[in-house]
Design goal:
The chain has 133 residues and is mainly alpha-helical. It has a domain of 58 residues. The chain contains 5 helices and 2 strands; from the N terminus they run H-E-H-H-E-H-H. Strands 1-2 form a two-stranded parallel sheet. The chain starts with a helix and ends with a helix.
Length: 133
Amino acid sequence: MTIDETAFRRLQVEGLRKGHLTPDDLKAALPIERMSPEEIARVIVRLQDAGVDVEPEDALLASAGPPRPGPSPGAVRIELDEPVVRAPPPGPRPLSPAPPPPVPAPTRPWGLQWAVIVLVGVALLALVLFLLA
């Protein structure tokens, strides 16, 4: 059983305001009779990690419901605040789009035209020199 985050926040605020929490405070805010001793201990550890002192009482854990079947006593349980993001299942990957075709290099139409331009330029230069002389 996971406790309601609102109930946990209320306990945390009350504990920070009072400076500590008593077992009666926990009994008033949590459904102790439906929680296993491990779940109650986990709530107490979370409160202590949040800076709230909790007065321990063995009767609190004894009044809890029966322990629930679960992992072996030496197992470590990790609770995440965020959902687990799973990797996509293995299998064929979607095809990626084809790369764009290569752009052809620009061609230069200079062959004979270049020679004509040079000859016209030389002829104009010769004409100007002839007229100036």
